[in-house]
User: Fold this.
Amino acid sequence: MDLNYLLHRHQVALMRADRAASPEAACSHAGMARGYERRILNARDLLGAAGRMVAA
Assistant:
């Protein structure tokens, strides 16, 4: 999976969580963001990238 795609989807999920109409929707979008974060970290490890993601 393309790292740029994962970074984009992660950002979209964070924005949707921030603007969610209900706590349930916010929780769902936040969960998606965490899933994308794990996939991003795995991809970065495979590519040999240094550093960790920082929460906004």
The helical segments are 3-18, 23-47. DSSP finds two helices and no strands in the chain. Residues 25 and 35 are 15 Å apart (CA to CA).
